[in-house]
# Entry
Amino acid sequence: MSEGRTTTVSVIKADIGSLAGHHRVHPDTILAASRVLAEAKRKGVIKSFYVTNAGDDLQLIMTHFKGVDNPEIHELAWTAFREATKVAKDLGLYAAGQDLLSDAFSGNIRGLGPGVAEMEFVERPSEPIVVFMADKTEPGAFNLPLYKIFADPFNTAGLVIDPRLHDGFIFEVLDVFEGKAVELRAPEEIYDLLALIGTPSRYVVKRVYRKSDREIAAVVSSERLSLIAGRYVGKDDPVMIVRAQSGFPAVGEVLEPFAFPHLVAGWMRGSHHGPLMPVGLKDSKVSRFDGPPRVIALGFQVKNGELIGPADLFDDPAFDEARRQAQMIADYIRRHGPFMPHRLGPEEMEYTTLPEVLKRLKDRFKPVEMGYKPKVKHESGEAADVD
Ligand SMILES: O=C(COP(=O)(O)O)[C@@H](O)[C@H](O)[C@H](O)COP(=O)(O)O
Ligand SMILES: [Mg+2]
Ligand SMILES: [Mg+2]
Ligand SMILES: [Mg+2]
# Structure
């Protein structure tokens, strides 16, 4: 981190209830959260804010000078979500308070349900950032775009051309099941990096740093709701902040991976693979089969702690073709109905409501002569003989 006063950008999000099922946030809940943040701004707790929605997820984008993981900021977000939930309940919105998994705030909002992405930096003379917000998918959905942005010269010309990017980047990868993290360096360790992040349900890129000076370049909300709650509670619907330009990838390089609507896990009942469709704010809502999974990208300048903007970056004909491809992929994969690989594999389905259904069939299975000694998989993953 360079010397000087730091600015913190905190993006904290939660599904506190929505209109027409899990379709989109109601404007009155945006208003309720905005009132709480406006009061906090007036009192000088935060410097500026922008409240919006990604589908049915309420998004609080805030700037302040208190650093990451600050209890006052987290409590502020918690209060905003609680106030918005009250409105959601009054309006009878669907799944009011869905992501607030606890009744009480205890100093840090992480682990209580909402998703959190925060970064702290000394502002450059001009500080462009892009805030990505997705609905009906999981944090690992950003693995592929992050790899392309910070490690793939076919995406990011600056990795080759710009001496400030040429050393590469460090990826902090989180194992969300074990609660462990590892740092891998690009380009020298990209095969190891890909060996992990190609399993996005387990290994999530949490942060990216510029290698030459360890400046923070990107951060992702890595909360997995099912792991926190121990049951299915919708999808995580992650957010990500990326710094751009002047020693970081250009805004156009940051957006470029989303021209390919890659397959992500989520969509209907958090149980299906589908294409991630980049959309402008006006299309930040889900419909077909509760999807397809969508992502919005808002560009801001951060100046003296103030958010200037946003620019609605996917609201552009340049992404029409990606949207069209996403529709084609959606048509194709939907025709698989309840079959894999449209439906997620058994490991990921463990965190949905499917096991309850399978449990009912368990006692109806009778042994048959297979001509070989069958093996079962224990929870440990070890194969063992059937008795
Ligand atoms: O994934 C979904 C919701 O996720 P989200 O709230 O966006 O995290 C939806 O597809 C729901 O799972 C689906 O609409 C069924 O919802 P319920 O009837 O079980 O609430
Ligand atoms: Mg919802
Ligand atoms: Mg959602
Ligand atoms: Mg969700």
Summary: The chain has a mean pLDDT of 94. Residues 71-90 form the longest helix (20 residues).
